[in-house]
Amino acid sequence: MPLFYFDHQENGGEIREDEIGTELRDMAAARVEAVQAAAEWMRDNASESGAALRLIVRGHSPLPLFVLNATIEIGHDPNENIARNTDENPPPRT
Hints:
Blueprint: E1 3-10, E2 15-16, E3 22-23, H1 27-45, E4 51-58, E5 64-72, H2 78-88
Antiparallel strand pairs: 1-2, 1-3, 1-4, 4-5
């Protein structure tokens, strides 16, 4: 079975190389493994400020076979301001 290496970068930090690798039957299995690993990492590491994970999957070559990017971004809800402004500042009565 081929060996796949899952290098990872957490929240824009340093890329950490997988020096051991994981034996998987083929590229499809490597993609499934990457998705499952990213989902587990997100569940364990997400915070109220969000989270980002980049998995760089390679074989024996240093060139990536594929890259998985997983991001949770928490942004401002534009509808929240509209509702708040409407409640706090009702339109003038005519």
